[in-house]
Design brief:
366 residues; 3 domains; Jelly Rolls; 2% helix; 1 helix; 8-stranded antiparallel beta sheet; elongated; 51% strand; mainly beta
Length: 366
């Protein structure tokens, strides 16, 4: 278990949000303010705020004040009560909020406030304090650490290539039911295994059939993607008795099926992709992947489903620019959908073992 507070050592903590206490609310949200090695010329401070003071010796109806935008409103008075004082946020026709019931009011992007009040003895003014929190984060070596880095430190599997927005992922810690097995040959099998893992305690174990050339894999069907660039990433252990390991992105748009495949040719030590002509095109030769028992390699494929082209491929440290390469297509009136998959091919006989972990599907890829 990772202690989240250990990741934020040295940060200043401020209260900005709310909690309920009977019929009242009070500040409670913890805001972590960056501390330490801030960039030159940039200082760290408490959340910014603005105060608006309103005369309560005169009755007001929808007194308008333009402010903001702010995310929280806090009310106070130099008298003994806020009874009979209400505000509306952003719009005059919004629901009135009685300030006798709230000390802090959360509101996203508050730009205007409308104040209504009666006159009461001993009460002279209302102070409205508007504030917005500073985003969670801190500085390391002069650079801001954002949410992606904090997520990685808290155990996210999205650490290899952080581009794109994650739409689906699997760390293989729970079950294999999210996938459809592809089993070709006697003895082929897929199952969760606690023998090896890239992260966590488990991975998926793929066993090829007993004959050379047998194939074992897993695939996942997803709805047809939003029309942004899409990526699929998986980490894997290789084996010198495997002919190849590959990842696939297939699209059916109702008129055609589109194919995108990235191959790690373990036996011949090559990286290839499936081109428009339906052949394996070489990206790199003499590509040797270390086969140590504990090492997981990572590969990722990104495509453009709008223009039906490859974008890039990644195998470990090497990125391959495929932006000029069209995807293979065949006629198909099958229902629109997307499929991502991972396949292993046996080079020798006897049922070849390999492991895969941390599958990630993304959209909005650059």
């Amino acid at each position: 278990m990772i202690d989240p507070l250990s990741l934020l050592a040295g940060a200043a903590i401020y209260q900005v949000g709310i909690k309920h206490d009977g019929d009242k609310t009070h500040p409670a949200q913890i805001i972590i303010v960056p501390q330490g090695a801030a960039p030159s010329g940039q200082t760290t401070q408490a959340p910014s705020f603005y105060e608006e003071r309103i005369d309560l010796t005169t009755a007001h109806t929808h007194l308008e004040k333009t402010i903001g935008p702010w995310d929280f409103v806090q009310a106070s008075t130099d008298g003994t009560t806020l009874d009979g004082v209400s505000i509306k946020l952003n719009r005059q026709d919004a629901q009135a909020i009685s300030l006798s019931s709230y000390d802090v009011i959360p509101v996203a992007n508050c730009n205007k406030v409308y104040v209504t009040n009666d006159v009461r003895a001993g009460r002279t003014a209302l102070t409205l304090t508007f504030s917005s929190p500073i985003p969670l984060g801190r500085y390391i070596n002069g650079e801001p650490v954002g949410r992606d880095e904090l997520a990685a430190r808290l155990g996210s599997i999205v650490t290899f290539d952080r581009r794109g927005s994650v739409i689906w992922l699997d760390d293989f810690e729970d079950n294999i039911n999210k996938w459809e097995a592809q089993l070709y040959g006697t003895g082929a099998a897929v199952a969760l295994s606690s023998t090896e893992a890239r992260n966590g305690a488990k991975s998926v174990l793929l066993t090829t059939g007993n004959a050379a050339g047998d194939v074992t894999g897993i695939r996942k069907y997803l709805p047809y993607p939003t029309l942004t660039k899409v990526g699929f990433e998986i980490s894997f252990r290789t084996n010198t008795d495997l002919r190849e390991q590959s990842i696939h992105i297939y699209l059916w748009d109702g008129a055609k099926q589109w194919w995108a495949i990235l191959y790690v040719k373990t036996y011949s030590e090559e990286i290839r992709y499936f081109n428009e002509a339906g052949s394996d095109a070489v990206l790199e030769t003499s590509k040797v992947l270390y086969t140590n028992v504990s090492l997981f390699h990572t590969m990722k494929l990104v495509i453009d489903p709008i223009n039906h082209r490859y974008v890039r491929a990644i195998v470990n440290e090497k990125e391959y620019d495929l932006s000029g390469q069209a995807m293979r297509s065949t006629a198909s009136i099958s229902t629109p959908r997307m499929c991502v998959g991972y396949l292993t091919y046996a080079q020798t006989t006897g049922g070849i073992l390999s492991y895969a972990d941390d599958a990630i599907v993304t959209q909005n890829e650059p």
